[in-house]
Every structure is written in C-alpha cells, then in structure tokens.
Amino acid sequence: MRSLCIRELIYYFRNLKEIIVISSLMLSILLVAPFVFSAEKGVPEGVPAAMLWVALLCAVQLGCSQSWQRHADAGELELLPLLPWTLEASVFAKTLAFYVVLLLQLLVLLPIASLWLGVSSGQWGQWLLGLSAGGLGLTCLCQMAAGFMAGNRKSGALMGLVVLPFSLPILIFGAAYTAQDQLWADSVIFLIAYAVFLAPLHCLAVAAGLRYGH
C-alpha cells in the first residue's frame, strides 16, 4: 500500500501540469467571482468564503476524476485487485496521495487567495484548518464517485450530479466556519466528523465497485 501511495505522489510531482490545472481552476474561480457584483456595492460579506469552498469543490472533483481516469486509460483497473494487499488499501493509498497534494496546493494558494479576498494573516491558520478538514471530506466523496465511474467518458459531468448533494453540508458548514473568529467551533468539528465518517466508507464503496463492476 505504501508503494502505491509513493508511486502516486511521484506521478504528481513528475506531471506538474496536472497540479497546475487543478490549482488554476481554483484560482480562476476566486479571481472571477468578485467581478459578478457591482463595483458600487462591493462584494457582500460571506461571499468570498463561500466562493473559496466552491472553488475547492471544483478543483477536488477535477483532480479525482483525472486520477481514476488515468488508471482506466492505462488498463490498470483490472490489475488493482491483483496487488498484494486489499483493494480497500489501494483506494486509501490513492486518496491519501491526492489529499497530500491538495494540502500542498492549499498551503501555496491560501496566501494568494487571502490577498484577493481580504483575509488577514491572523486568520490563515483557521482557514487552513477548515479547508483541510473539508478538503478531506470532499476528497473522499469525489474519490468515491470517480471510482464508481472510472472508465466512463462522461464521468466528469455525472460526478457533479452525484457529489453535489452530499457535498452541500461541507460547503455550508465550511463557509460558516471561515466566517467565524473561533478556531474550534462546532462547524469545524462537524467537518472533521464528516471526513472521519467518509474515509472508511469510501474505501469500502469504491473497492466493492471495482471488484464487482470491473
């Protein structure tokens, strides 16, 4: 399992174009969003935080879809059950590798986004905690949907329909948390609990889908 996780990490850092595309999508949403509002009235309070979470969802969805489609294009989906560890462990290794890459992107993008959104440096720690907890939940959701739809050329469009209803609690509580000044609020506890609930569930679900669907 560890070898698969390391292999995924090596792939990402050897193919920086994929990371750049994911990061560019997140940044483009953040940069364009303020121009939707009137220059006289300005951006309403709470909208920047909400747009940051929407940008995170779109980036995670794109990254997870590409991750599983890569295996489908290479014909590796049928080989995953033959590895010398459980299929659930393979799913967890892929999720862990993607989540590590996502955290590194957040560390780089958060200072840039904070300058555009008007977030003080004293709030960076709180925002990073919320985005990390919410990002783990979104990663598990998107990995589960992408694993089920791996090999389907229209998986990108279908993923949005599947993931959106289950990601709404993360977006709502995440935006509420980043709008607060309290570090350990009920909102972030919910985000952590939701991620802990989804972590083993998505491993079992994707493994079952790969085992009986491919």
Descriptive account of the structure:
The chain is an all-alpha fold and 214 residues long. It has one domain. It is built from 7 helices and no strands. It has helices at residues 2-14, 16-32, 47-74, 87-117, 124-148, 155-178, 186-213. Helix 4 (87-117) crosses helix 5 (124-148). The longest helix has 31 residues, at 87-117. The chain is globular and about 50 Å long. The mean pLDDT is 79.
Which range does the strand content fall in?
under 5%
Order of helices and strands: HHHHHHH
For the largest beta-sheet, the strand count, sense and barrel status come to: none
Q: How many E strands?
A: 0
Return the average pLDDT rounded to an integer. Answer: 79
Number of helices: 7
Count of individual domains:
1
Oligomer: single chain
Class of secondary structure makeup: mainly alpha
Q: What coarse outline follows from CA principal-axis ratios?
A: globular
* Proportion of residues in helical segments: over 70%
Whole-angstrom Rg: 17 Å
Low-confidence stretches: none
Distance between the termini: 20 Å
